[in-house]
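Database export, one record per block. Field names are fixed; values are copied verbatim from the stored entry.
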Amino acid sequence: MRITKIETIWFEAVPAAVWEQDNPKARQALPNNLWVRVHTDTGLSGIGETYYLPRAVAAIIHDVYAPLLIGRDPRDIENHWQNMFALTNFCGVMGAEMRAISALDVALWDLVGQISGLPIYALLGGRSRDRIRVYNTCVGFGKYPDLDAWLNGRAGELAQDLLDQGITAMKIWPFDQFGPGIAGPENERGQTKVWGAVTAAGTRGLGISNDDLRAGVAIVEDIRRAVGDKMQIAIEGHCRWDLPSSVKIAKALEPLDVMWLEEIMPPDNVDAFVRLKAETTVPICQSERVFTRFGFRPWIERGAMDIAMMDLSWGGGLTEGRKVAAMADTAFLPFTCHDTIGPVALWAATHMMLNAPNGLIMEIVRGYVDGWYNDVLEDRMQLADGRLTLADRPGLGTRLREDLFSRPNARIETTTEESLKVW
């Protein structure tokens, strides 16, 4: 059995004015994603996905990794991961290179599942649970204007609406609006549009005023007034604050019993998070910007976090995800996976969360699950009563829609055995 072809697909963005006319409160999703298909001489193919810089990732897949994979047995997943990592780690690997590895790794797991006739969760060691509870990251999309709701005084109403759907946990980022953005020194808090929507990126805030702190906390208090403790609330920080500000925010949140405080500072200084944990009782979640088991090791060993969160489509795929989950488990820490990325990533993460003994909860964006994700895959995610489950199907259990490849703004590239002969 041999890998014979590797295929990538990504999409050019729709002109901003055209998109905003039909989607005034939602960013363009497709132009940020890249999908990969790994084909074999048996006729089977596996799919993977990553997010961010799709043109760069596609170039790495075809120029660097395809020659390592084509002609080889797809079942040697661990060896493929180590080979790809070793080649690009020669010059530094924690960027588009790791995103490419992650997408290819998930595609290989999908392939091996189909070859063996088993779902990925069974290949990982079987299920620790038959469904996983979800929390809703309150991004707006489609029929769910969730971001607009909590930013404009309706956080309590949003929480009740989620509870009515059986979703008992939610994530918001109430302090981002008070931190500096990337619009330049003359417009420090100005909003910057990237890919058709305001970006959450910003530099570190060097202090938060009491008025701004109260305004952020008031959003969380609105949820508590509306639904009490029926809703768990995670606070996203998007790496927007320095250490003193993070301590101040954490202490202000303590009476509100939040589920966790996530990425309140950039992940570049583990010791800063050790100091933060020493100052607060709020659980610390850290997070999708940490890549591979090597990245997570100091966080676990130094006690810098309470919940380990990984993005499988950025940080190393399923091969690394199971190792990070096991490392966290040895420290009696719960494990969770990041979404807001794309449908293949969510399917892969759900397999991991059904398997991991320390799997805590899974992130979703309900507008995506009930929206554009269904334009990409043949099957809808099975979400009911606030929980995800998977059918007993081989591999991931779903395929890319064939009409995806015929859309006018699709950009498709393939590498085959024949094309490699010119190297």
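Remark 1: The chain has two domains: 3-117+400-420, 122-389.
Remark 2: The longest strand covers residues 3-11.
End of record.
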